[in-house]
Amino acid sequence: MKIPFPLARLRNIGIIAHIDAGKTTTTERLLYYAGKISRFGDVHTGDTITDFLPQERARGITIQNATVSLPWNKHVINLIDTPGHMDFFYEVMRALKVLDGCVVVMDAVAGVQSQTETCWKFARKVPKICFINKMDRVGAGYSRTLMELIWKLNSRVVLVNIPIFKKTQDGDSFCGVLDIVNQKVMKWDLNDPEKIDISDVLDSENDSLIEQYTKCRQSMVDTLSLFDDVLVKSFLEHADGDYLKLDSKTLNESIRKATIQNQVTPIVCGSSFKNIGVQPLLDSIINYLPSPLEAVFPDVNKDVIKGPMKRDDKLGILFNENKDLCAALAFKIIHDPIRGTMVFVRIYSGILKNGHTVHNTTTGKSFKIGKLVRMNANIPEEITHLNAGEIGVITGSTISENISTGDTLISHSIKKDGLKTLSRKPEFNLKINPMITPPPVFTVSIEPRTLGNKKSMEDALHILTVEDPSLHVSHDAESGQILLSGMGELHLQIAKNRLLNELNAEVEVGKVMVSYKEIINKGSNEITIQNENGYKFTINVSPIEEEKLASLLSEDGSNLVTENETWYPLGSDNNYLVMEKNIKYALEKEWPLQLSYESIVNSLISSSVVVLQHGGKRRNFPLYSCAVKVKGDWEIPIDTTSPMEILSISRSILSKTLTDLPEEEYSVLEPSMNLKVLVNQKDMGPVIQDLTGARSCTILSIEEDSLTKDENAVEFQKIAHDQYLPPDSTLNMARLENDDISKKVINATAPLKAMMAYSNKLRSLTQGRGEFYMTYRGMEKLTQDRMNSLDDA
Predict the structure, then answer these.
(1) Is the pTM of this model over 0.85?
(2) How many Å apart are CA 615 and CA 622, to the nearest integer?
(3) What is the pLDDT of residues 608-667, one digit of tens each?
């Protein structure tokens, strides 16, 4: 089959940033200049391509990932526009699982913001370029933002272009960029978005501009020389030690290599809203971010990989050098009113074709897929196949019950029914980039308005949780209520709106509450059940030591396989199923049972989730951070083909182990948050008093806004000091030591319950000048005072 373009010309990238940094506006401009749309969409008027949900257009924010493809300079860019609000960070997490590179958009006025730091840290292995946006705004600071980027994000930078301004009656006005690599001055016509005036910087009569260009060139070469011996050789031998004589090709190759190795971050700037700097951003995506042939290898379960992974120019990654294997990761699911369930996949190996049978390595099930489509936001384009490296969508009548977010799908690249060939190979159980769902921290109750509405309510909740696994549905055994849990108040507001207005569920939604959990303080006794049908299981439950778990599991939380145990995650409550190695069956040359090992494990996972979700003895809150350990002497009859008796036996054992534990061995947990409050110096007293008094917060530190206190701070402060930064009046203002205008950062830990509706209080205490950001820290045991307040609620 002819491949329409080589993998080297493909880019899979994401746009990530803090909320309101301009991600969606930037995406609109990228689409326009690539020729995909004929007019600009605007966030404020609600007509953007990637923000197509009614709630996105009404609120002016991105809620879910949107995928688009665009051509540029004989390349194809698959782009995912991600949300910036912290309530929807799971969308960013799953997008980064399938991306090879990303563009970090920063607001030149606000600088490096809290969610930018969170996204940057999560994407630490992903090559990045930075687009400093909103350079046309009053208070925009290119060099100040760079200074913060180096200090706060611990990254060296290479200035690919810098802003240029023209004098007006109202002061300096941003009009274009100075291209450091190609030594060009680029000025945009604000009345004609297609018109750019390009000239050679060395022909300019502006001495200041030439001086900035010269210093930026020198800084660029000096930084790249730390990592690239080829550049050093070219600089000394071909450029005669002259920074200005190095050719653009050599510089671009050096920047690309250092970016892909995460040694530097290329910096470009502009104003997406004013259509300035977008074309250079497109060029930088092509020039500096990796193709699928250069990207970091995905994380896989190492027990199925017998040697190093390799790449093929046409087939992508070869797992065990198997050229017949097609491997894909399902990273997003949506329900379309016309096409039904649609599963977004990234192809890592081989070619996926219409109508092929695929195998889900998570569930162990095989099924036939329908048509394939490529999405441009909400507009589908039917295709016959997906090549390695591409992002597309699977459709079909049976996929809704067979695929979940994070599942790995494999099929035969050539034969329509070639799974039988693959089933004898170890990569038949391949799992790519496992996804960990963060625990929900807010909850609302959901009730059908009438008994006749119960089925439609359950169907609507199923659609919500399949599309967004960071939403979680549970049953309160004490009250009989259905509970919907999510990542934040806005997250649940959006879910409520979708239930009522898009999915037309006739339900009543309660007030937002905090999600509490319970934990056991000590392990249970081992309980063995061996029945007359030949089934035997020995199970116990114990609390997980966080430090031990951190040392056992890989960074992405994938299943751990040791010599004697395998750890399987049980949903979002930090619970795990621990399977000891079964010596009896391991000694067999071939698997002797009719029921597959994966089916047995999935049955034990299902029963464990149900019992742990049923709750503890204190307040019937779901159990958290528990290890359900199955001893390796389990047995089942050879001719068993149904897992139902395994479900029944394991559920009864688990229920008995937890029932036998006395109530005093259970403790209640509440969500604890990392809190960062930015306030002026003069507002510090009232804010700290409120935090430590009414809200039971623990103050960790108080810092200047411009500094980050960590082990790399001193090193990167020096790097920032040595880095050439173009003239910037806001940088000088930031260095003033005026207590009345300098921002302070209060770092604290806080119980989530105490921080509900905090924004109104902070606004009152600071006359609207304060800001705060929260990120999930973990679950902590309630103190007696807070337990008493919970009992009184």
Answers:
(1) no
(2) 4
(3) 999 998 889 988 889 999 999 999 989 999 888 888 999 999 999 999 999 999 999 999
Topology of 523-660 in CATH?
A: Ribosomal Protein S5; domain 2 (3.30.230)
Task: Retrieve residue 368's tokens.
Answer: 């036939």
CATH code for residues 7-288: 3.40.50.300
Q: Write the single-letter amino acid at 65.
A: N
What are the pLDDT digits (tens) for 117-173? 888 988 889 999 999 999 999 989 999 999 989 988 999 999 999 999 988 877 788
Q: How confident is the model at residue 288 (pLDDT cuts 50, 70, 90)?
A: very high
Q: Is 416 annotated as a binding residue?
A: no
- The fold adopted by the segment(s) 671-792 is Alpha-Beta Plaits (3.30.70)
AA letter at 32? Y
Mean residue pLDDT across the chain: 86
Tokens encoding 600: 């047995």
Compute the residue count for the chain: 793
| Residue 575 tokens, joined | 């619970």
Q: What percent helix, strand, coil does the chain show, rounded to 5?
A: 30, 30, 40
190 token code pair? 């604000």
Query: β-strands 536-543, 626-630: how paired?
Result: antiparallel
Cα distances (angstroms) measured from residue 136 to each of 44, 129, 139, 283, 759:
18, 20, 9, 21, 29
pLDDT for the residue 581: 87
For residues 307 and 321, what is the distance between their CA atoms, to the nearest angstrom? 9
Residues above pLDDT 70, as percent of the chain: 90
Residue 519 assigned ligand-binding role: no
Q: Does domain 302-429 have CATH number 1.25.60.10?
A: no
The per-residue pLDDT for range 438-458, each reduced to its tens digit, is: 778 888 889 888 888 888 899
448 is in an annotated binding site: no
Q: Confirm whether residue 392 is marked as ligand binding.
A: no
Secondary structure E strands in 544-646? 560-561, 565-569, 576-580, 626-630
Start-to-end CA distance of the chain, whole Å, equals 66
Order across the sheet with 576-580: list the strands: 527-530, 536-543, 626-630, 576-580, 565-569, 560-561
Sign, CA torsion 702/705/710/715: negative
d(CA 433, CA 329): 8
Q: What is the mean predicted confidence (pLDDT) over 100-104?
A: 96
Residue 385 annotated as lining a ligand binding site: no
Per-residue burial over 109-135, b if 16 or more Cβ lie within 10 Å, else e, is: bbbbbbbbbbbbeebeebbbbbbbbbb
627 known ligand binder: no
The answer on whether 83 is annotated among ligand-binding residues is: yes
680 membership: H or E segment, kind and range: strand 666-680
Write down the domain spans for the chain: 7-288, 302-429, 442-511, 523-660, 671-792
Parallel, antiparallel, or unpaired: how do β-strands 340-349 and 379-383 relate?
A: unpaired
Q: Read off the pLDDT band of 426 (50, 70, 90).
A: confident
Check: CATH 3.40.50.720 for 442-511? no
Consult the annotation and say whether 100 binds a ligand. no
Answer whether 7-288 and 442-511 agree in fold.
Answer: no
Query: Is there a binding annotation on residue 22?
Result: yes
The vertex-412 CA angle with 409 and 415, nearest 5°, equals: 145
The annotation status of 356 as a binding-site residue, yes or no, is no
Q: Is 82 annotated as a binding residue?
A: yes
Asked whether residue 127 is marked as a ligand-binding residue, the answer is no
Show Cβ contacts of residue 465 under 8 Å, excluding neighbours closer than 6 positions. Answer: 471, 472, 473
User: Residue 294: phi, psi to the nearest 5?
Assistant: -115, -10
